Amino acid sequence: MTTALISKVATAAFDEIIMERLLLKTTEVNTVKNADFLIGLVNDKQEVYRVIGAYTKKQYDNACEELDDYGLDGDESDREANGYNTIFGGTINDDEDDDE
Fold this sequence. Notes:
This protein is of the alpha/beta class and about 100 residues long. Helices cover about 30% and strands about 25% of the residues. Strand 3 and strand 4 form a beta hairpin.
């Protein structure tokens, strides 16, 4: 999977955590947007600041599951209008010890 930041848009507080936990190759936005499945990440202002490109359905499903597990909310309601298959945002659950 690949990822790129959208220029001139502030990143979300959880961006560093996402980049540490997901196996993503950083590249240019135009390259990422050629992927078969696109995931957008939004900041506190609900602006898409990062795009993640998945090249298979399995990669897409795994990325969505991981983002959901981190506590982010996915929205597919207006995906055709914005070009993303899903947009995630919210607050990350950074509890490493969820079992306790």
